[in-house]
């Protein structure tokens, strides 16, 4: 039975993702996608990880012949622009991408950069209607981006911070071992919104939990988190709640381990990019992460999806794979074909109705605010080989066991968006 299952998984992976190194059959002019991300500096590892995900997704579309349009099939081309994680550099990259003929802008790592790009794209599209672009966001999760700052030109494919916090609270709410919590985050719009929502939801769902610390730190500039870790331990907190990502998370959990903090970490991004290896054995049963998908989701389709990514990017440190980025590219390809055009307005109108599935995972775009609705999962760190942990993270020997699956309709939250729509 094990051999048959293994063969079935290999067959499924080959059918779905036979990698994407084959020459595309599309012959028309390429559809240019511009990735604007930190590809150097403190968060370069996050930008490169995103690039691998998007490259794989683009390859898959091209392997099946590109996007079908009335004038013939056209391949997708992913071009890289280094923002260095800075808003000013991102705006300069946006101008370069548009001058290079990019029609779709992809960015996500940093809500501050996202807000700057969104403003610039709104202004550009108003000034130059013949060169309009769409902005596809895979990770910038400040709730304002699809609420009071929502835009017809912006589509978010990650669950926003309030949705992620609500999912985490479904687990923390039942964790009676947590009687006190320390809130810590990066000092910009996203980090601030995470702590604000943590306070609100703790008050509503766990009023018995005392908040024993509440602080923000500079984004990407702290090299030594020992002073923060020392305060966390001294506070007597049973748990830390944080939206930190990249090196700001990795360095923090390393410091917490070094000072002997033995509480839990309820995180948005504790499942990748060095965090599991950094915390090591101390994280078993203690690091909790919320995601749109985890490698140990117990389905054959999910396993085949992950195995195929590992075949494409075989080094352990390259296994930062996100389903939402794959669904985003699938949704874009679907919208272009449905619109019969790569022009911004018809593609945006079609993208509002996107409903896509891949490897047993699915999602739909909510037209009211352009917030993607999808399944969320919560996982707890454990040793590879433990029940429910077939796959580890980045060769660390530790992976995440799925403890909660939240259906899209349960993860969905209301929106305050009042969007101004644009017609052709």
From TrEMBL:
Keyword Electron transport: no
Domain Leucine-binding protein: 30-383
Annotated keywords: Signal
Domain of life: Bacteria
Pfam families, sorted: Peripla_BP_6 (PF13458)
Family annotation (PROSITE patterns): TAT (PS51318)
InterPro entries: BCAA_transport, Leu-bd, Peripla_BP_I, TAT_signal
CDD domains assigned: PBP1_SBP-like (cd06329)
Keyword hit for Signal: yes
Signal peptide: 1-22
PANTHER family, per the entry: LEUCINE-SPECIFIC-BINDING PROTEIN
Family to which this protein belongs: Belongs to the leucine-binding protein family.
Protein name: Branched-chain amino acid ABC transporter substrate-binding protein
Organism classification: Bacteria, Pseudomonadati, Pseudomonadota, Betaproteobacteria, Burkholderiales
């Amino acid at each position: 039975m094990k051999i048959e299952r293994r063969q079935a998984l290999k067959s499924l992976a080959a059918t779905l993702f036979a990698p994407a190194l084959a020459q595309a059959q599309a012959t028309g002019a390429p559809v240019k996608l511009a990735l604007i991300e930190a590809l150097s500096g403190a968060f370069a590892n996050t930008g490169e990880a995103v690039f691998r995900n998007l490259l794989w997704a683009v390859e898959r579309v091209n392997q099946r012949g590109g996007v079908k349009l009335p004038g013939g099939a056209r391949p997708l081309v992913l071009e890289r622009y280094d923002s260095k994680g800075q808003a000013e550099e991102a705006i300069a990259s946006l101008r370069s991408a548009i001058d290079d003929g990019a029609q779709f802008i992809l960015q996500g790592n940093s809500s501050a950069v996202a807000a700057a790009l969104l403003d610039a794209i709104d202004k550009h599209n108003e000034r130059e209607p013949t060169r309009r672009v769409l902005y596809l966001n895979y990770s910038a999760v400040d709730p304002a981006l699809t609420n009071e700052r929502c835009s017809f030109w912006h589509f978010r494919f990650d669950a926003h911070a309030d949705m992620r916090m609500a999912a985490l609270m479904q687990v923390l709410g039942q964790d009676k071992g947590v009687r006190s919590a320390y809130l810590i985050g990066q000092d910009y719009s996203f980090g601030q919104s995470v702590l604000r929502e943590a306070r609100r939801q703790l008050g509503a769902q766990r009023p018995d939990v005392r908040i024993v610390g509440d602080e923000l730190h500079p984004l990407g500039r702290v090299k030594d988190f020992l002073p923060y870790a020392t305060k966390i331990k001294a506070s007597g907190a049973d748990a830390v709640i944080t939206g930190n990502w990249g090196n700001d998370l990795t360095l923090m959990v390393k410091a917490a381990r070094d000072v002997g903090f033995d509480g839990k970490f309820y995180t948005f991004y504790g499942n990748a990019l060095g965090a599991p290896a950094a915390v090591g054995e101390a994280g078993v049963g203690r690091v909790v992460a919320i995601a749109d998908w985890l490698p140990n989701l117990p389905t054959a389709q999910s396993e085949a999806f992950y195995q195929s990514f590992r075949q494409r990017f075989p080094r352990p440190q390259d296994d930062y794979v996100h389903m939402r980025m794959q669904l985003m590219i699938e949704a874009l390809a679907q919208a272009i074909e449905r619109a019969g055009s790569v022009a911004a307005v018809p593609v945006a109108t079609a993208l509002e109705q996107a409903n896509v599935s891949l490897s047993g995972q699915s999602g739909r775009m909510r037209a009211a605010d352009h917030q993607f609705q999808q399944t969320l999962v919560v996982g707890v760190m454990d040793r590879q080989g433990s029940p429910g942990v077939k796959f580890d993270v980045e060769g660390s020997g530790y992976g995440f066991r799925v403890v909660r699956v939240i259906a899209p309709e349960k993860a969905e939250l209301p929106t305050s968006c009042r969007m101004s729509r644009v017609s052709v």
